Amino acid sequence: MTPERKDKPMKEISLHGGFGDVVQLIPYLKIYKDNNPEERLKVYYREDDTPSDPRIYSGDTARLMTDQHGNKYNSRYEILERLPFVDELEAQDYRKKQSGEYYDPLTQARKLGWQASPTWFTENITPFLFNDSDRLSIDNLWKKHNLHNKFIISIHFRRSLKEINRLYQLIVKSEEIGDDVRIIMMGSTEHQIIPPKLDKSLSLVDSYCQGLGLMEVLLAGIRSSLYIGGRGGFEIFFWLNMVPSINIFDGIGKEFLQEPLWWPESYWKENAFKGGPIIWDELDINQELENKIIPLYHKWKKEKKQHE
Fold first, then answer.
1. What is the pLDDT of residue 57?
2. pLDDT score, position 288
3. Integer Cα distance of 154 and 224 in angstroms
4. Which residues contact 96 (CB under 8 A, 6 or more apart)?
């Protein structure tokens, strides 16, 4: 955030929802600021003390994260504080109070008749998100675990855990990919049940306890050749950053796909994989491996040889 004159008029906006909602709303904040540069922009984000429950993915909670010292972190703040067009941030429990104009992704999309595509997002938002410290941290992670010469797959264990875990096991056992693959495990034991770590894997689960913040984990995902996840904010973020993505939606996800403003088709039209998310009960893990992951691996291997 950049310092602004205190005597400027103030625009207050309160953001709906969790991390994924905030990611989708960030473009609207930038557009507002671009159109109203004379105003200071104050943004409110959700923070409350609702208890977590990993059995239900901590549904309808602020999903704060805890480090090894008991400090709490809010993913909404971590990404919003990187934005130079936001002048002031304040946490708010919107169950008790709402300040300013209330933004939610669906209403803003309908109101403006526009949603950010991956091309727009990577050109207008992503350059603000990561700093030199993030890059150095992930460079060191890659070096420490010899990831530069590996086919990296980031897997976020959140919704559709059983299906994602089945695909995870299949990838690790693949003889064709062999030892070329390394899996970066993402997730939080505070908010979901995480399957056991398998061979060829590096765990960033409970990353705050390992000294890694949200932005470092997101950068690790961006540097991966493939992202696999369920339905949530990480999934939206990696679609918008054009990381080849396989999303396995839970049953509720069918409703989201019926309303294209919730999950815009531009996400997968501008992606290596064009089909969009897969509903869990329509998943064929062998087909995903053979038709998507193996060809992507061979593409990576060919490009690797060209640069040797």
1. 79
2. 97
3. 6
4. none
Residue 293: strand, helix, or coil: helix
Check residue 35 and give its pLDDT: 97
Cross-strand partners of 124: none
Q: What is the pLDDT of residue 254?
A: 77
What is the reported pLDDT for 6?
59
Tokens coding 206: 């409970």
Sign (positive or negative) of CA dihedral 204, 207, 213, 215: positive
Distances (CA, A) of 49 to 23, 54, 213: 22, 15, 20
Q: Which residues, given as ranges, of the chain have pLDDT below 50?
A: none
If phi over 0 gives left and psi between -120 and 50 gives alpha, with beta otherwise, what is residue 146? Answer: left
Q: How many CB atoms within 10 Å of residue 211?
A: 10
Strands 101-103 and 10-15: what pairing?
A: parallel
Calpha distance 46→228 (Å, rounded):
27
Beta strands at 101-103 and 88-92: parallel, antiparallel or unpaired: unpaired
pTM: 0.94
Helix boundaries (H) for 36-96: 75-80
Cα(88)–Cα(1) distance, integer angstroms: 7
6 Cβ contact list (under 8 Å, min separation 6): 40
Cα 157 from Cα 184, distance rounded (Å): 11
Tokens 């400090």 — which residue?
71
Question: How far is CA 17 from each of CA 33, 102, 111, 127, 270, rounded to the nearest angstrom?
Answer: 21, 11, 18, 24, 26
